[in-house]
Amino acid sequence: MTVAPLRSAAPPNLGRSWWLREALALPEFDGEPAPPLAGDTTADVVILGGGYTGMWTAWFLKERDPGIDVVLLEQDICGGGPSGRNGGFLDGWLGHAGDLIPTFGEAGAKALIDAVAPSVDEIEAWCDVNGVDAWFRRGGDLAVATNQAQVERWTSTIEAAGRLGLADRMVELSADEVRARCDGPSFLGGMFIPEGATVQPARLARGLRRALMERGVRIYEGSPVTRFGTGRRTVAETPHGSVGAGEAVIGLGAWATTWRRFRPYLTIRGSYMVVTEPAPDLLEALNWTGGEAVRDLRSSIHYLRTTPDGRIAIGLGGVQRGLSRRVGPSFAFDEGFVRRVADDLVDLFPTFRDVPVAAGWGGPINVSGRNLPFFGTAAPGNVHHGLGYTGNGVAPSHLGGKILAALATHDDDELTRLPIVGRTPKRFPPEPIRSPGMLVANTAIRHKDNTEATGGSAGPLTSLTATTPRRLGYTLGPRR
Ligand SMILES: Cc1cc2nc3c(=O)[nH]c(=O)nc-3n(C[C@H](O)[C@H](O)[C@H](O)COP(=O)(O)OP(=O)(O)OC[C@H]3O[C@@H](n4cnc5c(N)ncnc54)[C@H](O)[C@@H]3O)c2cc1C
């Protein structure tokens, strides 16, 4: 495998994420190729998109009714999108408590946190029962301040969790306590949520695919849906065949922004990652042997985790190159951004300066105005969607699969009554204002983060621009 020393060359672009390549090299995650759809067929439910949302929905449909006939259509291979490229942070919405209460009230916030919390345990159990070694590790979730401006940014989260009676599920850590877990020289304190876990994301995606095939879900890969017709029966057309179905589920992630009906509620950002070669001795010297999922408290966050063989995988979230109106090739690899992530890794952990980087990659993030996914059903009542995870979808898409399976079987339960189901999501401004406006705000947010990282404070115009999304009622960007 090609390797590049940090800072000297761009991290190698291997075409797919390092996670997906690792998984596909193993027969249990590769399996029989699923051929493209050829000809016309029918099903009870057709699912568009072979990421976690589509696949968990198929799983929970089969749980509800093993005889249900489900077809899943994926343009690439299952897990080829963000579901096989992400950081593998498996956490719910406890860390969002401070944002949830103002939007949903205390009861709504508590209902949402409680609804997604079981997904971490349930994914662990699912992997065990289904023989999927997805490297599940419950190392906890560690949010750290890496500069003075970030110190105590966790206070509002802890206070909000206290109002919901959940304060005992998180703990504030001093700088020494943080560095006893992960000795980043810039770490100044933080907040730890022990229930957080990590997985190898592509192993989870590919394991799900295998389990679905074993259960009789008909999966067609290399089958982009090019036209979609609604009515009493839905029709999903692909280049070489179509599926007519009573119910349809749309789990297209960022690609859904090409659909006119979803465009007002979604915008696209990028997230980019690199993974190093193994350096277990260096990790040990950093005390980082507990598997903690680490993130800093920037608005465009760094997220970092380790692997069983002693690598660091680090990502930078919430970045935007240009107007980003649709998912283009730069979302899979952008040399400037992956190089930046590799440099940031060395800034955070200078002892990794000489450790080669094995690969860099990226993926699109489908951002919703509330920073949470939204689920619903469109007229005439048989087309259901789950979109807008805003960079936090590994555990929430498991909840999403339960919700969508309930919607597609016209069941009404406490999950379908959650305040992210069946409500009109917050709209973004229309074009031509939206994309340039988002780009200006995003540039200001990153400038503010970068200025604070060097000990400075952003000027009034940058701060005003960076906080504009919040002042317009979006749960995006910094509060101040
Ligand atoms: C780099 C990166 C790091 C991330 N890190 C984390 C993390 O650590 N923790 C976390 O919780 N979340 C993280 N996320 C977010 C998380 O990956 C997503 O929220 C989650 O994967 C969403 O799953 P999904 O199934 O809804 O969408 P996707 O995984 O995007 O799946 C949608 C699928 O639809 C397919 N598709 C698109 N158009 C068509 C079409 N016309 N016809 C057929 N198929 C089509 C796509 O190919 C894709 O496979 C990260 C995302 C990225 C990009």
SSE layout and pairings?
Layout: E1 4-5, H1 18-24, H2 27-30, E2 39-48, H3 52-64, E3 70-73, E4 89-90, H4 97-116, H5 118-129, E5 141-144, H6 155-163, E6 171-173, H7 175-181, E7 190-193, E8 197-198, H8 201-214, E9 218-220, E10 227-229, E11 234-238, E12 241-250, E13 267-276, H9 280-285, E14 293-296, E15 302-306, E16 312-319, H10 335-348, E17 356-367, E18 374-378, E19 383-387, H11 396-408, H12 434-453, H13 460-466, H14 468-471
Parallel strand pairs: 2-3, 2-12, 3-9, 5-14, 12-19
Antiparallel strand pairs: 1-17, 4-8, 5-7, 6-7, 10-11, 11-12, 13-16, 13-17, 14-15, 15-16, 18-19
Helix pairs in contact: 1-8, 3-8, 3-11, 4-6, 12-13
Which structural class is indicated by helix and strand composition?
Answer: alpha+beta
Q: What is the average of the pLDDT values?
A: 95
Terminal CA distance reads 44 Å
Characterize the quaternary organization of these chains.
single chain
Strand count, sense and closure of the main sheet?
9 strands, mixed
- Helix % is 25-40%
